[in-house]
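User: Could you write out the 3D structure of this protein bound to adenosine monophosphate? I've included everything you need below.
Assistant: Certainly. Input first, then the structure.
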Amino acid sequence: MFKLFASESNNETFPPVFLFNSESREEEEFQPLSKKGVRMYSCGPTVYDYAHIGNLRAYVFADTLKRALVYNGYQVNHTINYTDFGHLTSDADTGEDKMMKGLKREGLDISLESMRALSDRFIAAFETDIEALNILPPSQFARASEYVKEQITLIKTLDEKGYLYQTSDGVYFDTSKFPTYGRLGNIDIDALKDGARIETNNEKKHPADFAVWKNGALGWDSEWGKGFPGWHIECSAMAFSTLGKQIDIHTGGVDNMPTHHNGEIAQCESATGKQFSKYWMHSEHIQIAGDKIAKSEGNGIILKDLLDKGYSGADYRFWLLQSHYRTKANFSYQALDGAKQALTRLKKLMFTQWSDERGTLNTEKQLELVSLVNQDLDTPKLIAWMHDMIKDESLSVGERKTLVLECDALLGLGLADDPEEGLKALGHIAFNTLPEDVQDMIEQREVARVARNWTEADHLRDALKLQGYEVTDAPEGAQVTKIEK
Ligand code: AMP
Ligand code: ZN
């Protein structure tokens, strides 16, 4: 297991971890099922297109949760899945398969091979995104099309136990046989019935019943005919296979709760007779100008758009973490600029002024930061605490730097990066790689500055600007960045 502590941990003295459980709708003290480690499953992307910046919040949230648990001394076995078939545009049993939509959009033929090729492309893009966002790789990625056998076995178990019925278009889970169906988010099943007039499938016994198998020309052979397992079955079978029949934490976005996660609970608990996940955790949506971002609507900004505009993954992550994961946040470039500036200031401090500072861990102060993250991952408060602590002159600079590194183990902003690499990523250019005439001008400017000849120093700064270089003064000397055209 990776080690996250910047310094030696004293986690026996840490306050308990409290997490908001969507099932009880309360913050609960986290108690893992087993001392051996935490089993955590995160619903992953449907890989028919690029993940938009809203989708990525779900994984930054899961990563922040994992970092907090590891910081508190837990081993975390974490699965993120790839949905590479079976997720319909309605989230339930109607609409088009999103992968099919992707194949048509790309002009590809409708075959399992093309589906694989399409998902390969978007899986690669997703992995590039999560690396840019400093998301720690999960213990395993699970790809739905590689777990079809396990999904069919789970459907068979449910069939043998009498939970399923067949219709002309597939096999359905009979929610009347699972009395607590809809308990996540307190779904009013009767209201669903009232709203079912638009329901296209008259063969369903109840509108809440959901498909565990859909017939289709594209898919796999089974005793129910050719087709594919339902989206909810995918996640349950992959969680069982990679983590076990009972897990500690299941994460997703709030939109996963009503249908997808209630479906998972019903199937898993009917199959095993045991509680499936002890804690359910959901991140809220990111909006743009108050509207939902949805790649299905075609209005999704993707991370690459931000990178192309000169922001880093860490800038976006920092912006995300300034809001609590359970609140909606409104994305704007103006807000992202603010995050970028603040993070750049922090990085410059760590990579220049404080780069050679060393200090011991002030464990009393460490408890303050842990108590914030252990309060249902209060990253906005943790960030505010870090900013205040940096200015706290009752602490030595070395102590402050050490505490920033502890915060970074939780926030994952790259503040612990190698200073030289970190500066390069900020656009700083090593002096000896600059053209000779530029080096000369910088040296002349240093001489002017030391002589307090501000007119000459400013004149040289302007001349450097004309050559395309920005010079800023740091205690260890001039820092040079290339001006973006
Ligand atoms: P999908 O690829 O559509 O299966 O979605 C991947 C994840 O993104 C799911 O956990 C969704 O709940 C989440 N999600 C979808 N839209 C948003 C949004 N606008 N903001 C935050 N999370 C979202
Ligand atoms: Zn899922």
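The pocket of adenosine monophosphate (ligand 1) is lined by residues 43, 45-46, 54-55, 57-58, 83, 87, 252-253, 255-256, 285-286, 292-294 (CB under 6 Å).
User: Perfect, thank you.
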